[in-house]
Amino acid sequence: MNTTAAAMNSPAPKFSIIVPAYNEELLLPRLLASIQTARESYSGGAAAIEVIVADNTSSDGTAAVAESLGAKVVKVSKRCIAAARNAGARVAQGEILCFIDADSEIHPNTFNAIEKTVRSGKYIAGSTGLLPEKKSLGVFVTFWLMQPVIWLTRIDAGVIFCKREDFETIGGYDETRLYGEDVMFLFAMRTLGRRRGQRLGRVPGVKALGSARKFDQFGDWHYFGFPLQALKSLVTGNWNDEKLAQRYWYNSGR
């Protein structure tokens, strides 16, 4: 059988994990290695999980690194995190879409745990949560002060997941937002789920490891000033504060 015929007869993957990336050649290998470990640990087999890196106009070797480690690379010319996530989703073939930041590391049992959560039918979408890789008093206090908000809203970080059909129903991530698109995505999913008697899920036991580079750059206590800026965006509805976006998300010293 030739390669084309074999590809046509291959079953579609169960999962597509999508990684938006901008100049991430240094940290991307760590994430992709952790994804490979989780693929090999998945009960449905590694072939059931495809890995997509959405290269958002990187000027370094991000695309080459991703390809060398077996990921599918999609080029995204619109400099917008939401656009990168959506571009990855457009080429994805999996039934379940997962999104994770390039500077993270996922748990080996991630895909088994997400599949169990989705299969229950109770949840419209959800997240694994994350643990900070850096240990300091400021990081510790920040992390634990955020927990009540997470518990109340069920909106968390880490690996975000949903079914492809539900992603398409809400139109994916809002590309009019320079930031906050991940939070608003889960709000939109929660609204859709309420109509069906479903809610957002938080998957226990498989927290991703979150990068501490923003704490290294802006200080261990910077979150206590940053929420005031985010609150201003929430109150005014202006999620396109170019100065804030460039400083914190788009040009943060990578």
Q: Indicate the CATH class.
A: Alpha Beta
Helix content range: 40-55%
How is the main sheet built? 7 strands, mixed
Structure class:
alpha/beta
What fraction of residues sit in β-strands?
A: 15-25%
What's the alpha carbon Rg, rounded to whole Å? Answer: 18 Å
Topology, number of strands? 9
Please tell me the overall pLDDT: 89
In CATH, the topology is named Spore Coat Polysaccharide Biosynthesis Protein SpsA, Chain A
Report how far apart the termini are.
45 Å
Kindly report the spatial arrangement of strands forming the biggest sheet: 3-2-1-4-7-5-8
Per DSSP, the total helix count is 11
CATH architecture: Alpha-Beta Complex
CATH superfamily: Spore Coat Polysaccharide Biosynthesis Protein SpsA, Chain A
